[in-house]
Design a protein that fits this description.
CATH topology of the largest domain: Rossmann fold
Mean pLDDT: 77
Strand order of the largest sheet: 3-2-4-1-5-6-7-8
Structural class: alpha/beta
Order of helices and strands: HHHHHEHEHEHEHEHEHEEHHHHHHHHHHH
Low-confidence stretches: 435-474, 476-499
Radius of gyration: 25 Å
Shape: flat
Helix content: 40-55%
Number of domains: 3
CATH architecture of the largest domain: 3-Layer(aba) Sandwich
Number of strands: 8
CATH class of the largest domain: Alpha Beta
């Protein structure tokens, strides 16, 4: 999990502040030393760390901490604010041309995931009711043109590829011809995939500059691998100085590296991070929100992104029908299977769980989460008769043995699934009626051992206040936000360090 170690270190550091009342300058300096060490170990650029620590120290030693009712909480807020600042501050949206087509040029090193990213961006734009076209201007790397055509086919987007590549063709000519073609066919966005190299060289920069001059793009997006660490600084500076970029796209945010690139690149280049990619699937792509990323780093979760991803996959009419079933206690294993399949469409369940507030407290469970268990769950349910799916109470010993044989699993696994289903149905029924579910984790989630992620049940008796969403999955995320002690419409509040 990206930022996992950094998040753990920061959470532990703030826990030490929680027991203190009024904070002395020595307390703050000790905290800042730990934060500095944690950032450096996460491969954040030294110049970025220095500026960050200086900004936090200046504010932390001022009146906003000394006069605060909860000084420790105020320090956390300051750290959060400054993390947002080094990540770019306000979210920056894609700039579209006043007169189509909008031209987006992608640049970056070979291996950064640039070609796959082009397909993800095209699909995202298509989902925004744009009509994108991909341009195969990487004519150097072997099979780059073919790879882009495959990605384009998966995304359902046309690819302009007049040259075969593999060293054949002029990328500048291809890019210029693509703009003419897009104008003729009335495409609204042109995405130009350019050549990368294994390292920075003048030939790469010259070619990129020539393409930029030829097509005059509205955006030049620098695509960078989030896992390259300290090299991110040199690479980012080279592209900014050599080509001139307008924004950054982070790839491989689902990796387990230290994440220094993500925390350094915006400050170093002075350019905003516009998008982030966090998986292999074409849907594993999202706009970048500095405040939400800071919230993840501080283990406060990212409920807003979780809700947005849920809304993309769950149809409102289906959600209402499901809510009715839950309220009437007619929720079946068929419905359970359908919900599991819709969750899978959202991408990696590990990534989803990592967005929950307090995910750092259950990192070992998340990292050990077995996504293949969902396949086994599906096999078990599909091995049942329609009657058994609708009425699990008829599942006696012989029926369970038959289902285990048919699904290639064990009776124990069948029993575990039935138990998880009953837990999930009970929790969702409670939520459908508007009560606060006792949900320290996510009961019933396959691969988690069939229990609660957080151990025992919450003893909280507080009733949920305010309006409820008609979307059960969205409501689950909202409930998680409330359990974390904050309004789900906001990104500030409780975290795993309890302040």
């Amino acid at each position: 999990m990206l930022f996992g170690n950094l998040s753990d270190r920061l959470v532990d550091t703030f826990k030490n502040l929680r027991a203190k009342g009024k904070l002395s300058a020595a307390d703050i300096d000790a905290t800042l030393r730990e934060i500095r060490r944690a950032l450096l170990e996460a491969d954040v650029a030294l110049e970025v760390v220095k500026d960050f620590i200086a900004a936090v120290r200046e504010r932390a030693l001022g009146d906003e901490v000394s006069k605060a009712l909860n000084p420790a909480q105020q320090v956390v807020k300051i750290v959060n604010d400054e993390l947002v600042a080094i990540l770019g501050g306000e979210q920056r949206k894609l700039n579209f041309a006043k007169k189509p087509p909008t031209v987006i040029m992608l640049a970056g090193l070979q291996g950064s995931g640039k070609t796959t990213l082009a397909g993800k961006l095209a699909k995202w734009l298509k989902d925004q009711n744009q009509t994108p076209i991909l341009v195969a201007a990487d004519l150097q790397r072997p099979n780059a043109v073919n790879q882009l055509q495959v990605v384009g086919e998966r995304a359902g987007v046309e690819v302009f590829a007049p040259e075969p590549g593999n060293g054949v063709g002029n990328p500048v000519t291809v890019a210029k011809d693509a703009i003419k073609f897009a104008n003729q066919k009335q495409y609204s966005v042109v995405i130009v995939d350019t050549a990368g190299r294994l390292g920075i060289d003048e030939e790469l920069m010259t070619q990129a500059r020539d393409i930029r001059s030829a097509v005059e793009p509205d955006e030049v997006l620098f695509v960078i691998d989030s896992m390259i660490g300290q090299d991110a600084v040199n690479v980012a500076k080279a592209f900014e100085d050599g080509v001139g970029i307008t924004g950054v796209v982070l790839t491989k945010l689902d990796g387990d590296a230290r994440g220094g690139a993500a925390l350094s690149v915006s400050s170093v280049t002075g350019k905003p991070i516009i998008f982030a990619s966090n998986g292999e699937a074409l849907d594993a792509f999202e706009p970048f929100y500095p405040d939400r990323m800071a919230s993840r780093i501080l283990d406060m979760g990212d409920v807003l992104t979780l809700i947005e991803q849920t809304q993309k996959q769950f149809d409102e009419e289906e959600a209402k029908a499901l809510a009715d079933k839950l309220a009437k206690e007619t929720f079946t294993l068929e419905d359970f299977l359908e919900q599991m399949q819709q969750l899978r469409k959202m991408g990696s369940l590990k990534n989803m769980l990592a967005m929950m507030p307090g995910a750092g407290q259950m990192r070992s469970q998340i990292e050990n989460f077995d996504e293949k268990q969902i396949d086994r769950t599906e096999a078990i349910i599909r091995s049942m008769t329609p009657l058994e799916r609708r009425q699990p109470k008829v599942l006696n010993g012989s029926r369970r043995a038959r289902i285990a044989r048919g699904s290639g699993t064990t009776v124990t696994e069948v029993n575990s699934l039935v138990t998880r289903f009953e837990q999930a149905a009970k929790m969702m029924k409670t939520m459908a009626k508007g009560a606060m579910p006792q949900m320290p984790g996510m009961p019933g989630m396959p691969g988690m051992g069939g229990g609660y992620l957080g151990g025992g049940k919450s003893k909280s008796k507080d009733k949920k206040k305010g309006s409820k969403s008609g979307n059960p999955a969205k409501r689950a995320a909202e409930e998680a936000a409330r359990l974390a002690g904050r309004n789900p419409d906001q990104q500030s509040g409780g975290s795993s360090f309890g302040i």
